[in-house]
Amino acid sequence: MHRNISAIPLLSILIFMSSFMSSFMTSLGAQENRDNQTVRVFIFAGQSNMVGSDSNVEAIRQFPPFAGLEEAQPKVKFSYCLGRETKTQSNGWVALEPVNDIVGPELSFARQVTQETGAPIAIIKCAAGGTHLGGDWNPDEPSGFEMYPLALDLVRESLADLDQQGIDYRLEGFMWHQGENDMFNEEYMANYGDNLKNFLARWRQDLKAPDLKFYIGELCTKTIWGMDLRPRMYAISKGQKAVTASDPNAQYIPTSHVGVEIGGGAGLHYHYGTLGQLEHGANYADAYLENQGARSNVERSLKNWPYKEGSKVKLFVLAGHRNVEGERGFIQNVEHASDDAELLNNDLEVAFRYSLGGGVKKSFGWEPMGPAGYYDTFGPELSFTRRLKLAGEENLAVAKFTHSGSQIIDWTPEGSVAKSRNLYPDFISFILDSIQSLEEKGQEVELTGIFYHLGENDMSWGPFREGAPDRLMALIDQSRVDLRVPELNWYVSQQPPPDDESVNQIDVTARLEEVIGSDKHTFHIKAFSLPPQKKKLVLDTAGIIALGDLLAKSYAGQKSP
Fold this sequence. Notes:
The chain is an alpha/beta fold.
């Protein structure tokens, strides 16, 4: 019996074709990934945070996960043109290494991709600080430093050189990080999305690569511009997201969770700096490798549920910004420390659930307590858990929700004009989901408390420092309503606020004492005796471990009669 194809519902045909094409593309991607002979060519372009401004090659040694990237990578081909008035150029292909003693994202990207795939790669980079997409990078009417024709010539000449050498290659991806300067021009800012769409289309046309994949880097909200120019940064991000949402070969790459250089004065800065650039490159590598099906993930499953059915589990919630996330807490710094090396062992007695970077990395359900941060990092949860257990706490679980690129306003129920940065709904849902998942496993749940480390960046900018106490209490008050726990305990820790004349007129500690002191279920933890830190705002590994200890001790002290 023959079926009449016209009788088959159109939706079924579309579903079949979609499934077929998905399987075909997956198979094609896997086939390309197994090709370790063809050189994979990547283009890096943008402005100062693509160049690597305010980074330093010598500083790489401070960040153990990236050790060795100060050295050349002789198997990676590199062709570049950097700068505006004065340009630094490779004048052909050279081995990849730092240029002018600065660190660009290509260094960590290249090492990670070559290690994961075993394939040869080549990188073409054209970047200059202070350049606009609406002007310098405009493909139709380039102005200023005329970056688009400059970059196009560089790419074409570099590829022609590979052809002349008889080297087989394929264009694999275009990494773009730019937009800060467009937000200072009203026309450029309003039209960023349209300009970016045209930019991508022209590159594909001019390189005769209609399916060229673009990776569009987010403008980092952890910088000072993410605070004092919040509406303008938001406008650029909306344009970027509109393009990546409508273009199947363009992907939005979050970067607000990466490290940012600590500046002078109160500590805020405009650039990623050394650590941020290294993590910036890792973000692109992760996205590319995931698209190729070549990213290796370490499984951290909690195979044996640690609690007896029907028993009560005490749920501790950790929340906050840079230091709860663990920006500069590296596992390599404790691997050989006699007192703290045990923190790196997975604790199978404690269930751990997390959402980091505003959702950039999430646990797969409940995992064992242990190091789980991106970039080989960890937060105060490790020492916090250890200290609680030493104090005799049993049947405890930890849920951690952080975004190191956020400010306190993002945690308030009202949020800000930058609506996509509002964390409150996700934060509350995260806690409710954690409770529900424990209950579904047969546990009675006691929400023991929320341990929140006050926003570090907020303390460095006057308007946010001024508003911090009221925003904190708005968060606390509404959380008790939405979590349906009117007497929910909050433990608010505060590290010493930056001592700088630009913000010292605002006595934020006294104001916090006042508002917290009026709430008998909120406790102010002054983390003023942490180990000495080299940088303002961010805690190093020792500081993060000490913070976890302090939070646990403060909780135990509040429990005591």
